[in-house]
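Progress note, sequence design subtask.
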């Protein structure tokens, strides 16, 4: 189930993508673990990795839409997901330079500005990375309040002045997509997205704001000349371009989390099994066995959900925007699951998880970032809640969405249109997936909880006051998210029944835990609290199933170790 560099061969992709991804794995493995660890500790900028990418045309091939390039170039979410996972596997910092290139390109590929599109394609060909300059230090998620000010020059252009903060690749980016607002226009009509160049003399790099190998810059534009041909979007379209770019980009956080967990898991399971205490391997302890099994099962669930979400991304269109729910799910749910996976393993390997020459100590630090970036858990959960009524109660009919590994260009992602109207999006009936595996005891048990959740909303719906209380709503949101999570896991399937049932045993426990949390909220009514307690369930136990899944965990012992 897990990515293993020793055996990796993405035969489901076309020959060109397969070759490039294998070459990428080869690059990291040949360079080896000592270099990976040392450059992380020394916070060395990864020129060699970017030189490899430039030579192979990796970013150019994967990040140029078919309309703007030739040969194998296309925007293909399936292969981008593979790339994202591999980069996460070798380190969040490598992933990050790629990720912010994705974000920097978002406003360009959504723009009708052919000159900038051409420029971006050429820059990619020349091996450049990009940057996305939305955030400012004092405004955080509140992008309405931007202080990057554009003053008209009278010839269709502007001069831009202001400071951006937390901007990845801002030290080197060939093209920086910058969000600002006009000095002479009030409100949303005044927004502007424009393309800047970090090498321009009016672009002043201040510093790296993080203590990392990756470069998260703060920079200042001082009277930076923005020519008419540098403008990518204006008015509300600029705002939509910002949100739609984040929609495309934030999907990559789930695969980054998966890659990080996979590498950490090889180290953790191998270490625990080979470490002898009192004459027995650490894995002989029942609690260790349980923790490592939980970590493995949660990781497999992360993979199944994310893989299936790719299909919805690739099949999206104006009449099918279901991906807009599955996307914040990958961002919020899969990345927080990643934290749990690392926590479980760290409990087991304890001191080993601090050692500087492991991958694990880096994973333990870096996995924490993913739930917090590109929208916190709260922001994404609040978004997910908008879909809840239609998802649960008003299903619609759609053509089945197949597995999508075909070499298509996902061009719809760059013409997603206005970012509003989320509450009106309908979904196919979630019950179908659950019905299809009602034979598995824990799928059936979880289904009781899911049906009960619908009953809660019907009989004891949140009051007007509760609807305004985001703390209360988030507790509801966590319960809802589990139902969506389970649906796509079931749709993906393809794992043996014991493993699938084990995944749902965990979902039953998680639902019970979130129900207990709801029970404890001050805002929860007595009826809602009674419902919560009544829906705390035990998973259906099966010792032979536990043992079969444990054997899968043990199969990871020694299966991969990065070359020194
Ligand atoms: C390592 C790193 C790299 C980054 N890279 C980039 C980059 O390349 N380009 C870029 O533009 N930005 C980048 N960022 C900025 C990042 O996206 C910001 O974290 C983001 O703008 C949110 O700001 P904030 O984290 O300060 O949180 P704040 O916006 O200050 O939020 C604080 C709290 O308020 C809550 N909150 C805010 N809004 C809502 C809401 N609508 N509903 C519910 N709760 C809400 C949040 O959940 C959070 O708990 C990066 C940040 C870091 C740390």
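Output:
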């Amino acid at each position: 189930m897990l990515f293993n560099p020793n055996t990796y061969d993405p035969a489901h992709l076309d020959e060109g993508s397969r070759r490039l991804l294998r070459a990428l794995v080869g690059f990291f493995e040949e360079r080896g673990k000592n270099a990976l660890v040392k450059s992380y500790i020394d916070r060395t900028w990864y020129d060699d990795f970017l030189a490899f990418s430039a030579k192979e045309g990796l970013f150019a091939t994967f990040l140029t839409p078919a309309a703007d390039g030739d040969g194998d170039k296309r925007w293909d979410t399936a292969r981008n997901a593979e790339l994202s996972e591999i980069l996460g596997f070798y380190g969040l910092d490598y992933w990050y330079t790629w990720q912010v290139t994705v974000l920097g390109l978002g406003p360009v590929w959504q723009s009708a500005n052919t000159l900038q599109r051409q420029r971006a394609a050429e820059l990619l060909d020349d091996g450049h990375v990009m940057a996305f300059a939305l955030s400012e230090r004092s405004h955080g998620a509140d992008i309405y309040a931007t202080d990057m000010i554009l003053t008209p020059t009278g010839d269709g252009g502007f001069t831009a002045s202001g400071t951006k903060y937390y901007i990845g690749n801002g030290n080197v980016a060939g093209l920086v997509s910058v969000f600002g607002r006009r000095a002479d226009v009030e409100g949303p009509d005044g927004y502007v997205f424009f393309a800047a160049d970090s090498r321009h003399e009016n672009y002043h790099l201040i510093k790296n704001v993080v203590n990392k190998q990756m470069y998260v810059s703060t920079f200042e534009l001082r009277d930076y000349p923005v020519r008419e041909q540098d403008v990518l979007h204006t008015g509300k379209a600029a705002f939509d371009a910002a949100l739609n770019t984040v929609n495309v980009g934030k999907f990559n956080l789930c695969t980054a989390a998966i890659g990080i967990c996979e590498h950490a898991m090889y180290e953790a399971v191998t270490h625990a099994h080979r470490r002898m205490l009192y004459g027995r391997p650490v894995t002989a302890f029942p609690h260790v066995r349980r923790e490592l099994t939980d970590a493995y099962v949660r990781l497999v669930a992360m993979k199944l959900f994310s893989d299936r979400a790719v299909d919805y991304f690739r099949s999206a269109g104006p009449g099918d925007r279901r991906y807009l729910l599955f996307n914040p799910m990958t961002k919020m749910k899969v990345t927080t699951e990643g934290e749990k996976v690392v926590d479980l393993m760290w409990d087991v390997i304890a001191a080993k998880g601090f050692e500087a020459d492991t991958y694990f100590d880096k994973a333990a630090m870096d996995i924490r970032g993913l739930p917090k970036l590109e929208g916190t858990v709260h922001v994404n959960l609040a978004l997910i809640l908008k879909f809840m009524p239609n998802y649960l109660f008003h299903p619609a009919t759609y053509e089945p969405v197949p597995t999508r590994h075909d070499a298509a260009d996902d061009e719809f992602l760059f013409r997603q249109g206005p970012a509003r109207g989320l509450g009106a999006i309908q979904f196919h009936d979630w019950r179908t997936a659950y019905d299809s595996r009602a034979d598995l005891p824990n799928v059936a048990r979880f289904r009781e909880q899911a049906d009960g959740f619908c009953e809660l909303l019907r009989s004891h719906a949140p009051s007007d006051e509760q609807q305004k209380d985001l703390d209360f709503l988030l507790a509801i949101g966590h319960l809802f998210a589990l139902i969506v999570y389970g649906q796509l896991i079931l749709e993906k399937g393809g794992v043996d029944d014991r493993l699938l049932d084990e995944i749902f045993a965990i979902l039953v426990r998680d639902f019970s835990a979130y129900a207990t949390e709801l029970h404890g909220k001050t805002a929860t009514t007595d009826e809602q609290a009674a419902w919560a307690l009544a829906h705390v369930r035990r998973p259906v136990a099966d010792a032979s199933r536990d043992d079969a899944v444990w054997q899968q965990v043990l199969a990871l012992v020694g299966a991969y170790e990065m070359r020194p």
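The longest helix spans residues 286-314. Work on this subtask will continue into the next period as scheduled.
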